[in-house]
Design brief:
Blueprint: E1 2-7, H1 14-28, E2 32-40, H2 47-54, E3 58-64, H3 70-82, E4 87-90, H4 93-100, H5 104-107, E5 111-115, H6 126-138, E6 143-146, E7 165-167, H7 186-192, E8 198-203, H8 212-224, E9 229-234, H9 240-249, E10 256-260, E11 274-277, H10 286-294, E12 298-301, H11 306-309, E13 317-319, H12 324-336, H13 338-355, H14 358-380
Parallel strand pairs: 1-2, 1-4, 2-3, 4-5, 5-6, 6-7, 8-9, 8-11, 9-10, 11-12, 12-13
Protein name: Glycosyltransferase
Keywords: Transferase
GO molecular function: glycosyltransferase activity
Length: 382
């Protein structure tokens, strides 16, 4: 079976990591996944394209005019047919709109959409228009996959018939626990620059929905209480100036480091003492699964699929989103009670291995592909 995964990537974030894990697992199942990477005309290779090729995965870039682009959609669809693609699988609003706006009889290929989550938008904006179009196009997909059960109640999914909506957990490849890591000590180099105390790490896009302002304030209060802690935030994004201003304002320049985007930063998670995920909104964050597998004590917001993944607090501490005091107190608990943290770490690693493997994710998607191919062929023959 040949599957064309369609993505307009803005960087190596959760959706990109999930997709590359899925494609690798699909190859293990004997399938032929292809990454159709959308971008604007003249755009150089994207990070996801580089990383996919590095992993030996098949990539086909598509460069086209931005916005509502019927010609671009038809070009992508024509290429897919020439390559014998049997299923289209979109991973974001651009692919959803390009493929979903085409009538089924013109498309002649079944469409699966994975909703990874939603970005934080406020007020009128172009992004809100895309989100509205996205919601309309989701209704035209043969199957919509969501990454946690909480998303079922989201207003954008209310028009999706129940039999077309599937909950499929994200998954990660399970590490060989007997194999020693040979990764360069980049994480340790960063730690050396912030001191020898308890190290807290956050990893992701520097944007409002990630809740990093609250994390910096919580760390500031721990420092004010005399605790020897430091914070490293791995990632890049539009909120960097605001975060840097807060660090300076709180006098935390010696305690907080933001080294920017780090290629496959999850490799370095085990260098740190605690993992923090203070997001205001999430789907099922890949980095959370990676932190569980890496054996880090976890503090995370009670949003999206996070409580389900952490077994409602059995595998990590859960706090309300957007509040400093509960986040500070949870971090303090892990700093001062290492034995309690170890118990949750053991539960977390066992849970991620039992329920969140990329192999299980790929098998679940295969079942959906097979189901919609049969239904789609029957409908088109009427």
């Amino acid at each position: 079976m040949r599957i064309l995964h369609v993505l307009d990537s803005g960087g190596m974030y959760g959706a990109e990591v999930m997709l590359l894990h899925l494609m690798a697992a699909q190859e293990e199942l004997g399938l032929t996944p292809i990454l159709a990477s959308i971008g604007e005309i003249g755009m150089p290779d994207k990070a996801v394209e580089v990383e996919a090729r590095k992993r030996g995965l098949t990539v086909q870039p598509f460069r086209m005019r931005a916005g509502f682009n019927l010609a671009g959609a038809l070009h992508l669809l024509g290429w897919a047919r020439e390559q014998g693609v049997q299923v289209l699988h979109s991973h974001g609003y651009k692919g959803n709109i390009l493929l979903g706006m085409l009538p089924r009889r013109l498309r002649r290929l079944p469409l699966v959409v994975t909703v990874h989550g939603w970005t934080w938008t406020g007020g009128l904006s172009r992004m809100m228009v895309y989100e509205w179009l996205d919601a309309l196009c989701l209704r035209r997909a043969q199957a919509v996959a969501i990454v946690n059960s909480v998303m079922r109640s989201h207003p954008r999914l209310q028009a999706i018939a129940g039999h077309r909506l599937h909950v499929i957990n994200n998954g990660i490849p399970l590490a060989d626990t007997d194999k020693e890591s040979s990764e360069p000590p980049l994480g340790q180099e960063i730690l050396d620059s912030v001191g020898q105390g308890t190290s807290i790490v956050a990893l992701g896009r520097l944007s409002e929905e990630k809740g990093l302002l609250f994390l910096i304030r919580a760390v500031g209060e721990l420092v004010a209480m005399g605790r020897d802690v430091c914070l490293v935030i791995l990632g890049e994004g539009p909120q960097r100036p605001e975060l840097e201003q807060l660090v300076e304002q709180l006098g935390l320049s010696a305690r907080v480091r933001m080294p920017g985007f780090v290629d496959d930063g999850t490799r370095f998670l085990s260098c740190f003492s605690i993992f923090a995920l203070p997001s205001l909104t999430e789907g099922l964050p890949m980095v959370l699964l990676e932190a569980m597998e890496a054996g880090l004590p976890i503090v995370a917001s009670r949003v999206g699929g996070i409580p389900e993944v952490l077994d409602h607090g059995q595998c990590g501490l859960l706090v309300p989103a957007g509040e400093v005091a509960p986040l500070r107190d949870a971090l303090l608990t892990l700093v001062e009670n290492s034995e309690q943290a170890k118990i949750r770490v053991q539960r977390a690693r066992a849970r991620v291995r039992a329920q969140y493997s990329s192999e299980a994710m790929a098998q679940r998607y295969l079942t959906v592909y097979q189901q919609i191919m049969n239904e789609f062929q029957g409908a088109c023959s009427l």
